């Protein structure tokens, strides 16, 4: 009885999702990645500006701290932008990433090709 109820619940969840082709799902994932990335990067820039503009103002003593904060803010922003672009690339187009370290290997792929697009 519980198995039948779970099956019905899964069927009702599938009915809520649109029956889009894979290309449309990838485009939707790209949209989600771009919006989420923009939100995160905006919050990060706000935090970085807040760190660079303290209430007591800039002094010569804080010059080293400011330079360090600017450097780390730029590195983190560059890494975040890279991750967003990588996610968009995996969502929109067929990509495959393979790495191997000794006897361990890792493979990640995304964006399967649609029939008729090859």
Question: What is the gist of this entry?
Answer:
By secondary structure, this protein is mainly alpha-helical. It has 3 helices and 2 strands; from the N terminus they run αααββ. 64% of the residues lie in helices and 12% in strands.
Major sheet: order of its strands?
Answer: 1-2
Low-confidence stretches: none
Whole-angstrom Rg: 22 Å
According to DSSP, the number of beta strands is 2
Distance between termini? 45 Å
Structure, explained:
The protein has 118 residues and is mainly alpha-helical. It is 64% helix and 12% strand. It contains three helices and two strands; from the N terminus they run αααββ. It has a two-stranded antiparallel sheet with strand order 1-2. β1 (95-101) and β2 form a beta hairpin. α2 (22-52) runs antiparallel to α3 (63-92). The longest helix has 31 residues, at 22-52. It is elongated and about 70 Å long. It starts with a helix and ends in an 8-residue tail after the last strand. The mean pLDDT is 75.
Write out key terms for the chains shown:
118 residues; mainly alpha; two-stranded antiparallel ribbon; 3 helices; 2 strands; 12% strand; elongated
Secondary-structure blueprint of this entry?
Layout: H1 2-16, H2 22-52, H3 63-92, E1 95-101, E2 104-110
Antiparallel strand pairs: 1-2
Helix pairs in contact: 2-3
């Amino acid at each position: 009885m519980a198995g039948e109820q779970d099956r019905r619940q899964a069927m009702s969840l599938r009915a809520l999702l649109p029956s889009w082709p894979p290309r449309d799902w990838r485009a939707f994932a790209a949209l989600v990645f771009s919006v989420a990335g923009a939100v995160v990067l905006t919050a990060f820039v706000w935090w970085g500006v807040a760190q660079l503009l303290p209430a007591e103002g800039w002094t010569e003593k804080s010059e080293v701290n400011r330079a360090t904060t600017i450097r780390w803010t730029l590195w983190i922003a560059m890494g975040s932008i890279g991750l967003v672009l990588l996610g968009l690339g995996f969502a929109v187009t067929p990509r495959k990433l393979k790495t191997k370290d000794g006897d361990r290997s890792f493979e990640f792929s995304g964006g399967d090709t649609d029939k008729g697009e090859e």
